[in-house]
Specification:
The strands form two sheets. A seven-stranded mixed sheet has the order 1-4-5-9-8-7-6, with helices on both faces. It has a two-stranded antiparallel ribbon with strand order 2-3. The protein contains twelve helices and nine strands. The protein folds into two domains: 89 residues; 228 residues, BirA Bifunctional Protein, domain 2, CATH 3.30.930.10. By secondary structure, it is of the alpha+beta class. It is elongated and about 125 Å long.
């Protein structure tokens, strides 16, 4: 029995000395000291030992267990220390290195301009409405008084999916869809992405954003349109802003006008921003054409309305004094971080 215990102890100590991982030491503990371990098997064989020798053999088993447990604890302590030292080497902090900053994202200048614009019109009782970017020719052109072969179609040089479906060239189709429901009165703006086959340059892009507005009710006049756009200009560009209406032509409005505002850079005196004129063009507008009302099922003898269209990028460029539209789309952090 003594020789067997000595053999178990010797083998266990050799394995412990060779162990290079905590898992190996745990395996040794289980194989020697566990419920089914070698020392446990020795104790189970005590029934075969003479009664007078059992205390001696029991003491020998306990001594062997103590030696093995001590060796295991010692080796575990050494391994833990070694692991900790290696971890410290890998995770050492060099206090001379510059700190790492966590950058926070923020709204794009286009989004800032859109939210400012929506805030102005929501404050005047308008509803924000969205519609599909892939639109029927019927809504994008025909119901806006632009029939087949109309010159206005050539001006927009549209992206067609097929002869009946088109990437919308304006957000006016949303207005036609809302008028078609016949729910009066209407006070809405329709922001969204539009598409035209334009060459990319400092002021043009084949994909940009518009915000179109529409009011339809009884007794709406051009004076209401003028007052609305004056209020918008003052809130969006500044309280001293003035507006100027210039006669123009749009197929879906009659009469029609383009709207200029006093240059917010020079106050109307003339500068590089306004090319010396003191005025900057910002949008087109007019009274909704009676034929458009009729096509949407609205009686032009009872109802009238006005509409306007704002290029979101245009007012963003003007408001933030950006001289190249392409900067809005290039995702250059040096540019975007200024907003």
């Amino acid at each position: 029995m003594k020789e067997r215990l000595e053999a178990i102890k010797k083998a266990a100590l050799e394995k412990i000395e060779q162990a290079d991982a905590m898992d190996s030491l745990n395996d040794i503990r289980v194989s020697v000291l566990g419920k089914k371990g070698e020392l446990t098997q020795v104790l189970k064989g005590m029934k075969d030992v003479a009664k007078e020798e059992r205390p001696i053999v029991g003491q020998m088993v306990n001594d062997t267990r103590a030696v093995i447990e001590e060796a295991l604890e010692k080796e575990m302590t050494l391994l833990k220390k070694k692991v900790r030292e290696e971890k410290m080497k890998r995770e050492v902090i060099d206090v001379t290195l510059p700190g790492k900053t966590h950058e926070k994202g923020h709204r794009h200048p286009n989004q800032i301009a859109l939210e400012d614009l929506e805030r102005v019109f929501i404050g005047m009782g308008y509803e924000v409405v969205e519609g599909p970017e892939v639109e029927y020719d019927k809504y994008n052109f025909e119901m806006l008084n632009i029939p087949a072969n109309h010159p206005a179609k050539d001006e927009q040089d549209t992206f067609y999916i097929n002869k009946d479906i088109v990437l919308r060239t304006q957000t006016s189709p949303v207005q036609a869809r809302i008028m078609e429901t016949g729910q009066m009165p209407i006070r809405m703006i329709a922001p969204g992405r539009v598409f035209r086959s334009d060459e990319v340059d400092a002021t043009h892009s084949p994909s940009f954003h518009q915000v179109e507005g529409l009011v339809v009710d009884k007794g709406i006049t051009f004076a209401d349109l003028k007052g609305t756009l004056e209020q918008f200009a003052k809130e969006f560009f500044g309280p001293d802003t003035k507006v100027k209406f210039r006669p123009h032509h749009f197929p879906f409005t009659e009469p029609s006008a383009e709207v200029d505002v006093t240059c917010f850079k020079c106050g109307g005196k003339g500068c590089r921003m306004c090319k010396g004129s003191g005025w900057i063009e910002i949008l087109g507008c007019g009274m909704v054409h009676p034929h458009v009302l009729e096509m949407c099922g609205i009686d032009p003898e009872v109802y009238s309305g006005f509409a306007f269209g704002i290029g979101l990028e245009r007012v963003a460029l003007l408001k933030y004094e950006i001289d190249d539209m392409r900067l809005l789309y290039e995702n250059d952090k040096r540019f975007l971080s200024q907003f």
